[in-house]
Amino acid sequence: MNRHSIFFKLNLIFLFALGALIALFAMMVREIESQEMRMLEKKAVAYESEIRKIIIQSGSRLEKSLKEHGYTPIPHPEEINVNLTPIFNPPPTTFPQTLRERIEDGRLRIYRDKKRIYFELIGPKSSRMIAAPIEVYRPKWIAFFFGGMTGVIILLYWTLRRSLRPLKTLAKQIRRFGEGDMEVSTRSDKQDEIAFVANQFDATVKKIRAMKEARSLFMRNIMHELKTPITKGKLSAALLSDEQEAKILQKAFSRMEHLIHEMAEMEMITSQSLDLKLTTCDFRTLAKDAASLLFIEDERIKIGCKECMLKGDYDMLVIVLKNLIDNAIKYGDGNTVYISYRKGRVEIINKGEPMSKSFEKLMEPFCKDANGINKESFGLGLYIVKSILDAHGATLSHRYERGHHIFSIDGLEPAG
């Protein structure tokens, strides 16, 4: 169990409280037994002294004298002493010297049961046993008190665990929400603090879900409404008699169309919350499908791999390769893009000038390289790539070596 868990700490508190209660109960029982033994010591000294006087003074009236003083002669001690508990062996230091000597010499043995104390007087030829009553007070309230306290502690522990149990459910729902599940619900009808937090989180999830749905609807409507006038504009520009003006308009409409395409791609990724559908993918097929989306001739793409199978979301990885190949062509000086895959690492290599901005800066949305090589890009390609790779648990890095840009993807899981 996690040592930092609330349930672990609650268990420790319960065990400590229960252990302390048991220890306190044991100490009180021991103290009561100690008081009882001190009382028995005093009684034994007084009874033994009085019994000796009665024996010396009574003569033939011994049994009658013993009964008159409240003592009971035991006619057959051999039948009863097997069920008795011997005490004061060795004798305590509080006993008088003569009494200790008699016990140590074996002339006197003292026993007890719940109601009486027994003195066995052992002579050379015969023995005599005499019983005296004792009253031992063992308060019953102590057992009831400690039993009740134990019950209260167990009840509080059970109640607290039951109250804290929704925390585990809440943690699971929060984890699901963090993984992209927008349909979680943590609504609670209870009145405690955990229920308050759960209801606040539930309300926040609903607001985020509503905002996301509203944003998606807004983006889709905007893109849909823009496509029609752009298409009409491109057709109208083609009919213009002024060729220079027609080219300017065609270029403007193409840039608008390209922006809508990138926005649609980003909206598709974010609206799906990157709910990956992992399958076994062939890297060569991935690269070819990515190139076909860009209408690039096969001879411009050089693909290399030995063990070509990997795990991932096929459609998402096609988008990753498409955007990186597109960057390589638009930013590159040469006509060829090299793509390779080996042991979970993908590399896209192209010849080109160094970038004027840092790689980390270029991965931000709507950020473009200031050298102006890629005038048509709106700076969403690398941001989309990073979002997809983050969902795969992979990373994108860049290095510039000997006039070549090398984009590396690390962390993709090989198949098999």
In short:
With 416 residues, the chain is of the alpha+beta class. Helix content is 56%, strand content 17%.
Q: Give helix and strand order, one letter per element, not per position.
A: HHEHEHEEEHHHEHEEHEEHHEEE
The unreliable regions are 370-378
Biggest sheet statistics: 5 strands, antiparallel
Examine the coordinates and then state which fold CATH places here, giving the name of the CATH topology of the domain at 275-414: Heat Shock Protein 90
Q: Kindly, what is the distance between the CA atoms of the first and last residues, rounded to a whole number of angstroms?
A: 34 Å
Q: Structural class, from secondary structure content? A: alpha+beta
Layout: helices, strands, pairs:
Blueprint lengths: L5 H53 L3 H7 L3 E3 L2 H4 L4 E3 L9 H9 L2 E5 L3 E7 L4 E7 L7 H38 L14 H46 L4 H29 L6 E5 H11 L7 E5 L3 E5 H18 L5 E6 L2 E7 L7 H4 L18 H12 L2 E7 L2 E7 L2 E2 L2
Parallel strand pairs: 7-9
Antiparallel strand pairs: 1-5, 2-3, 3-4, 4-5, 6-8, 8-13, 9-10, 10-12, 11-12
Helix pairs in contact: 1-5, 5-6, 6-7, 7-11, 8-9, 9-11
Q: Could you please describe the fold and organization of this structure?
A:
- With 416 residues, this protein is an alpha+beta fold.
- The protein has helices at residues 6-58, 62-68, 77-80, 97-105, 141-178, 193-238, 243-271, 283-293, 314-331, 359-362, 381-392, and strands spanning 72-74, 85-87, 108-112, 116-122, 127-133, 278-282, 301-305, 309-313, 337-342, 345-351, 395-401, 404-410, 413-414.
- Among the domains are: 6-133, no CATH class; 275-414, Heat Shock Protein 90 (2-Layer Sandwich), CATH 3.30.565.
- Helix content is 56%, strand content 17%.
- The strands form three sheets. A five-stranded antiparallel β-sheet has the order 1-5-4-3-2.
- The protein starts with 5 loop residues before the first helix and ends with a strand.
